Structures are given as C-alpha cells and as structure tokens.
Amino acid sequence: MSNLTELEVENLRHIIGGHGMIANKLAFYGQNCTDPQLKTIFETDGQAAKQAEQKLLTFFG
Q1: Cα dihedral 36/38/44/48 (nearest 10)
Q2: Helix crossing, 6-32 with 36-57: angle to 10°?
Q3: Measured at the alpha carbon of residue 31, what is the angle toward residues 26 and 37, in degrees to the nearest 5?
Q4: Is residue 39 within 8 Å of residue 30, measured between CB atoms?
Q5: What is the pLDDT along the chain (61 residues), one digit of tens a residue?
Q6: How many other C-beta atoms can be found within 10 angstroms of the C-beta atom of residue 49?
Q7: Where are the domains of the chain?
Q8: Residue 26 in contact with residue 42, Cβ under 8 Å?
Q9: How many CB atoms lie within 10 A of CB 26?
C-alpha cells in the first residue's frame, strides 16, 4: 500500500464497498427487468461499478 493514511484506507474501503453494493443491486435489477432498454442500462452500469470497484482494489495490492 502506497503511503495511505489510516483515514484514507478506511475511506477507500467504504467507497469500494459502495461500488460493490451498487454493482450487485444493478445486476439484480437487470436480471429481473423486462424492459430491454432498462435491462441494458442496468447491466452496463453494473459492469461499470464492478470495474470501478476492481480498479480501486488495486490501491491495496
């Protein structure tokens, strides 16, 4: 971990958790949505949230 303070690490964990939760919710909404346009939006935004979560996790690696 590159010179992050304890507060920065905690904030980063909180943000990462938020992205993970959003990704899971959007995936769920996409799976249960019958409108094709909304389904695409949910799936696309869910993938973006998952990618952001993965990118933020690199700060811990």
Answers
A1: -170
A2: 160
A3: 75
A4: yes
A5: 568 889 988 999 999 999 999 999 999 999 999 999 999 999 999 999 999 999 988 877 6
A6: 20
A7: 1-32
A8: yes
A9: 20
Paired tokens of 8: 């920065």
Q: Cα separation of 4 and 15, whole Å?
A: 15
Token pair recorded at residue 51: 């990618």
N- to C-terminal Cα distance for the chain?
Answer: 6
The single residue listed with the structure tokens 């249960």 is 32
pTM attached to this predicted model: 0.83
- Residue 5: phi and psi, rounded to 5, are -75, 165
